[in-house]
């Protein structure tokens, strides 16, 4: 009860803080403050920073014909400017106003694409440049737009006449001043970090006094030190956040070098930590493990980022600050969540996934978490975040962490995680020829009085994954049959895997490659049930799951094993 009251207090403190932030943002966008964003217009763009995000000239052609494939949705404008039409999809609107799609015009490399880019930027300036409100001026979207306009200023300004050139620089200056005033008011998380990145880009790319660059550099360093953990993970515990932040930090480091400025040590250190962290979360096929907000992976983007990783050897196996473990041997890779939930301030995308794991073998995924449908309907997000959508155990069909479902809270904060494990203990058990760990969490203690302990051990050159799930009372008290001790352990099978039964009634997981894995359990008979995989590139897909269901009062400890019976010939370590 005390923990629940503490979580509720923290939640309403956040609500009050966010309400105050929004009030201050409205004031700063009003006529009383708006004059502060006017001022001297820069004479020119000194340098266009690089953009590492993958570009497609075909998308530039689609945009030219009025078809906008943004944020997983295609909108046809029928000859109108996209800024004139009302599209109810919030993600599409944010992506439109973020202007990252300018990279496709640059990739096209034609005068037609440059003219179209210039026309669209001009439309935005006319329709939204002098009216600070709505999605277009959300702080996170403004930061993306500033970075995009700077990165692709060469294509936007190609062939531009002087009036447009001045209007572009004047609007850019207003946006930078606005973001500078709003950055300190932004909620915690990657949007606030991106705002500091955008302001550093601006101080480097436009004529500015030395004091402006020093201030932007100092604020960026403070935010990096606070948000990037010692093992390279992000405080949100979302693998996608590592990828997204690196896609901005690497060009920023290059921009410092191009301008003969010394980047802050915090920037260099963050990149040096985050590149190995990105490799830590990566399966051999290039996709990132589906934890805490991670959906489908854009493989080309990861490959582009990792070209900047000069480290050699296998990925790290232990990320204690981020709260993850990795087992890797003989072509088999296991990535597991062994950490506490992220701070409530940055938990809007966090999952109740403690002690869940994923198993891949070569370039094939076998056991997965459901992940999220990045561009899908918001009503499916709670399902994807629940413990039942992960390859771990639930007690009485309840998640190990709670989420806020208050409409008043959600309007301000989204759906933060407001309860979950308070203690997670994890110990590596590596030995010669084997890698493993034992972890335990107390997420079910307040409601049901159970600790969940999981041990995973990968051995035999990656051919055997042995697992043990144990349920116990704090202090090793006796487990009673009180109707509140029903346990379900789930192993979600990737939809590309065939789940069969062999002649011995064992469950066989067979993929397109030569690898075949056999699932066995000694104490409980496994069952097969329907499931759903949210993180498919084409959207949600039907899948299946292996389920072990039992009462903890009857079976307190379950042993199970996944054995690779045919092998595609992998090296001893990867």
TrEMBL record:
It comes from the Bacteria. It is found in: Cell envelope. Residues 313-561 form the Heparinase II/III-like C-terminal domain. InterPro entries: Chondroitin_lyas, Hepar_II_III_C. Its main location: other. This is Heparinase II/III family protein.
């Amino acid at each position: 009860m005390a923990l629940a009251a503490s979580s509720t207090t923290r939640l309403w403190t956040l609500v009050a803080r966010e309400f105050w932030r929004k009030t201050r943002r409205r004031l700063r966008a009003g006529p009383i403050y708006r004059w502060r964003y006017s001022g001297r217009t820069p004479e020119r763009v000194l340098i266009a920073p690089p953009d590492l995000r993958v570009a497609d000239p075909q998308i530039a052609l689609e945009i030219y014909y009025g078809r906008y494939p943004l944020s997983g949705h295609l909108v046809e404008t029928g000859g109108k400017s996209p800024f004139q039409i009302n599209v109810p999809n919030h993600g599409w609107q944010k992506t439109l106003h973020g202007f990252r799609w300018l990279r496709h015009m640059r990739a096209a490399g034609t005068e037609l694409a440059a003219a179209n880019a210039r026309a669209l930027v001009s439309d935005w300036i006319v329709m939204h440049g002098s009216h600070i409100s709505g999605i277009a001026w959300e702080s996170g979207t403004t930061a993306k737009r500033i970075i995009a306009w700077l990165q692709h200023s060469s294509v936007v300004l190609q062939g531009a006449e002087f009036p447009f050139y001045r209007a572009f620089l004047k609007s850019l200056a207003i946006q930078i001043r606005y973001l500078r005033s709003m950055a300190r008011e932004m909620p915690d998380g990657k949007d606030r970090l991106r705002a500091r990145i955008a302001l550093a880009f601006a101080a480097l790319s436009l004529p500015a006094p030395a004091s402006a660059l020093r201030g932007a550099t100092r604020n960026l360093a403070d935010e990096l030190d606070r948000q990037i953990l010692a093992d390279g993970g992000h405080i949100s515990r979302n693998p996608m956040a590592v990828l997204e932040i690196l896609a901005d930090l690497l060009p920023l480091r290059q921009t410092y070098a191009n301008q003969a400025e010394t980047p802050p040590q915090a920037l260099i250190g963050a990149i040096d930590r985050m590149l190995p962290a990105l490799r830590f979360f990566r399966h051999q096929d290039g996709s990132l493990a589906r934890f805490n907000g991670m959906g489908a992976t854009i493989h080309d983007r990861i490959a582009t980022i990792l070209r900047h990783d000069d480290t050699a050897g296998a990925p790290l196996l232990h990320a204690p600050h981020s709260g993850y473990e990795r087992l890797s041997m003989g072509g088999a890779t296991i990535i597991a969540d062994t950490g506490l939930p992220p701070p409530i301030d940055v938990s809007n995308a966090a999952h109740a996934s403690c002690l869940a794991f994923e198993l891949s073998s070569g370039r094939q995924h076998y056991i997965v978490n459901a992940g999220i449908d990045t561009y899908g309907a918001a009503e499916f997000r709670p399902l994807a975040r629940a413990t039942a959508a992960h390859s771990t155990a639930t007690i009485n069909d309840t998640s190990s962490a709670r989420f806020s479902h208050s409409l008043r809270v959600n309007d301000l904060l989204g759906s933060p995680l407001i309860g979950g494990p308070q203690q997670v203990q994890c110990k590596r058990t590596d030995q010669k020829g084997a890698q493993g760990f034992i972890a335990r969490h107390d997420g079910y203690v307040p409601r049901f009085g159970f600790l969940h302990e999981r041990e995973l051990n990968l051995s035999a050159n990656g051919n055997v994954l042995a697992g043990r799930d144990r349920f116990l009372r704090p202090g090793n008290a006796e487990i009673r049959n009180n109707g509140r001790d029903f346990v379900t352990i789930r192993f979600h099978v990737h939809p590309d895997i065939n789940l069969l039964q062999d002649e011995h009634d064992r469950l066989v997981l067979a993929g397109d490659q030569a690898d075949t894995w056999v699932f066995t359990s000694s104490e409980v008979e496994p069952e097969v049930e329907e499931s759903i995989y949210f993180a498919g590139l084409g959207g949600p897909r039907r899948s299946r799951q292996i389920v072990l269901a039992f009462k903890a009062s009857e079976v307190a400890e379950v042993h199970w094993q996944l054995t690779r019976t045919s092998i595609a010939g992998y090296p001893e370590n990867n």
